[in-house]
Write a structure and sequence with these properties.
Length: about 120
């Protein structure tokens, strides 16, 4: 089992910044991908950003140029730096990790952290 602990959400004004963190612990040998999804009220959960063990990243078009995802493999932690936040970024942000296929390919989810962008 893998446990995920998220932190860093909150209320911020439009144009502001927040940094989300997600630390993985437990049976993390073989951890492959780490990332963030978000779900706004009345909408489906969507991928925001993802980073794999080799360092390659992919980000949703809506956040490119504003969000940056990074990973500290020594700490098994993934970060999401969010700049120039917009009201439409308001959502619950969920950390997501996936094990390598060789280790079962299972995915795990964090409990979610609220990000609210409002003046």
């Amino acid at each position: 089992q893998v446990q995920l602990v998220e932190s860093g959400g909150g209320l911020v004004q439009p144009g502001g910044s927040l940094r989300l963190s997600c630390a993985a612990s437990g049976s993390i040998f073989g951890l492959y991908a780490m990332g963030w999804h978000r779900q706004a009220p009345g909408k489906q959960r969507e991928l925001v950003a993802r980073i794999i063990s080799g360092g390659s990243t992919n980000l949703a078009d809506s956040v490119k140029g504003r969000f940056t995802i990074s990973r500290d493999n020594a700490k098994n932690t993934v970060y999401l730096e969010m700049n120039s936040l917009k009201p439409e970024d308001t959502a619950v942000y969920y950390c997501n990790v996936a094990m390598a296929a060789l280790y079962g390919g299972k995915e795990y989810w964090g409990q979610g952290t609220q990000v609210t962008v409002s003046s």
